[in-house]
């Protein structure tokens, strides 16, 4: 059990635990009441001023402060501001991957050279992710569906060995300024739903997934069918997230009979719905999606399992300028069309800093941070750890999963080749749960 974000809990010697009470939440204006009078330039200038002040405050320290540099817009903005605010040499820390399909070191180095910061990178090989994964789960203390926290655990190790104790990082920018594909998906699906028989409207998804042309490839046709399935009703709670939720819910098939019985008819979406602000349904669809992404992905994963749990695993403090209260308050007031202009994400944020960044960085489309998943465990000579943890005896003893289904999944993983989201998420969710059980419950 953990306390929900923005809540407090009272503990007394006689009363024990009280119910959580919310003291703060993201709040957006009602649909139609957004400020559309201020100019684009005025908003951009206010964003720039707020971010400069947020970074300045987070540079206060008795020790040197480093910067995480991913090669994307958000970390580049922070690094550029730091460079302008201090005359002290700046150390930037980055992830590079031996697998070129995940590697962004070219963009990281270009930005580092452009603004004049020292570039430090850890080059992560697939097998290293598998090696540290049990330690990552011990620090994270919860199951995860992707391997992405592991490279960041290795990166914080590099920061510690370099002698730094504090780093600035870019979490929060995508949630507050409309950077994720899920916001674009929501916009496309709502547009498509107005003319569901249109052959053209779903092709807008090609803008998000150019690797899978919708009309000419099997993957593209599957993608179209995937999003068509949850096209209606558009006024349902969490419309933006329904495809993701329904896809993830399919992982319940791996649960054991006893666990399914224990879960019963519990619906986490209904619990989430009961906890949103009363004004939630009056917000613009983008603002509703931003709230949910902040409440779920940012709070529960990015700042925890993938964030501070990984930095503090090596005694590194992460600081988040984009989550400064004034930046957050400003972002909630910015009209939706200045966050997501057409399908161009973080429009006003780019506008605010385009004059300070190389054009290839300022205009570079959002690339999600990903890391190799099952390849980190099964495409290596020594995979005994995986087979031991996921052995029928261990699975039966923990009682969480259907042994035969896990065995089939493991065989599928071992055959090689690419896996879809469900299989990768299933494999990592089961493996991380079993590691938790081994360390804390067995």
CATH architecture of the largest domain: 3-Layer(aba) Sandwich
Kindly state the percentage of residues in helix: 40-55%
**Through-space gap between termini:** 19 Å
What CATH calls the topology of the largest domain is Rossmann fold
- Estimate the mean pLDDT confidence: 95
What letter string, H or E per element, gives the SSE order?
A: EEEEHEHEHEHHEHHHHHHHEHHHHHHHHH
CATH class of the largest domain: Alpha Beta
Question: Can you say what the CATH homologous superfamily of the largest domain is?
Answer: HUPs
Largest sheet: 5 strands, parallel
Strand order across the largest sheet: 7-6-5-8-9
Overall strand count: 9
Provide the β-strand percentage band: 5-15%
The shape is globular
* Cα-atom radius of gyration: 22 Å
Structure in words:
The protein is α/β, with parallel strands linked by helices and 442 residues long. Helix 1 (40-58) packs across helix 15 (347-353) and helix 7 runs antiparallel to helix 12 (285-311). It is built from 21 helices and 9 strands. Strand 2 (11-12) and strand 3 form a beta hairpin. The strands form 3 sheets. Strands 7-6-5-8-9 form a 5-stranded parallel β-sheet, sandwiched between helices. The protein has a two-stranded antiparallel sheet with strand order 1-4. It has a two-stranded antiparallel ribbon with strand order 2-3. It is globular, with a radius of gyration of 22 Å. The protein has 3 domains: 38-178 and 297-362, Rossmann fold (3-Layer(aba) Sandwich); 197-290, no CATH class; 376-441, no CATH class.
């Amino acid at each position: 059990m953990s306390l929900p974000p923005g809540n407090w809990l009272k503990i007394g010697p006689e009363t024990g635990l009280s119910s959580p009470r919310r003291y703060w939440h993201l709040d957006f204006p009602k649909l139609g009441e957004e400020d559309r009078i201020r100019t684009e330039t005025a908003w951009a200038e206010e964003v720039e001023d707020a971010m400069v002040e947020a970074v300045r405050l987070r540079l206060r320290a008795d020790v040197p402060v480093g910067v995480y540099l991913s090669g994307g817009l958000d970390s580049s903005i922070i690094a550029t501001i730091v460079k302008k605010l201090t005359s002290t040499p700046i150390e930037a820390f980055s992830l590079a991957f031996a697998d070129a399909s995940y590697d962004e070191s070219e963009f990281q180095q270009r930005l580092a050279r452009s603004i004049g910061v020292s570039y430090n990178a850890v080059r992560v090989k697939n097998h290293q992710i598998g090696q540290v994964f049990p330690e990552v789960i011990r620090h994270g203390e919860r199951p995860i569906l992707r391997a992405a926290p592991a490279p960041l655990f290795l990166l914080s190790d590099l920061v510690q060995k370099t002698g730094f104790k504090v780093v600035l990082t870019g979490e929060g920018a995508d949630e507050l300024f409309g950077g994720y594909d899920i916001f674009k998906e929501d916009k496309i699906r709502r547009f498509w739903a107005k003319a569901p028989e249109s052959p053209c409207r779903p092709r807008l998804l090609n803008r998000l997934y150019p690797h899978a042309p919708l009309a000419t490839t099997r993957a593209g046709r599957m993608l179209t069918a995937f999003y068509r399935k949850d096209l209606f009703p558009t006024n349902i709670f969490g419309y933006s997230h329904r495809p993701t939720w329904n896809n993830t819910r399919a992982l319940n098939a791996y649960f054991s009979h006893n666990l399914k019985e224990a879960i019963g008819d519990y619906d986490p979406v209904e619990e989430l719905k009961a906890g949103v602000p009363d004004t939630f349904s009056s917000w613009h669809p983008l603002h509703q999606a931003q709230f949910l992404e902040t409440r779920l992905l940012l709070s529960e994963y990015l700042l925890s399992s993938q964030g501070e749990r990984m930095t503090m695993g090596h005694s590194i403090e992460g600081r988040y300028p984009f989550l400064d209260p004034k930046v957050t308050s400003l972002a909630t007031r910015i009209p939706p069309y200045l966050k997501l202009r057409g399908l161009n994400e973080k429009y006003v944020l780019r506008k605010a800093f385009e004059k300070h960044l190389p054009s290839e960085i300022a205009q570079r489309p959002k690339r999600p941070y990903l890391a190799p998943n099952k390849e980190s465990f099964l495409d290596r000579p020594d995979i005994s750890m995986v087979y031991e943890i996921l052995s029928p005896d261990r699975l039966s003893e923990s009682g969480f999963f259907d042994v035969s289904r896990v065995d089939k999944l493991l065989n599928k993983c071992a055959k090689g080749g690419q896996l879809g989201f469900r299989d990768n998420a299933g494999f990592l969710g089961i493996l991380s749960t079993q590691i938790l059980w081994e360390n804390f419950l067995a």
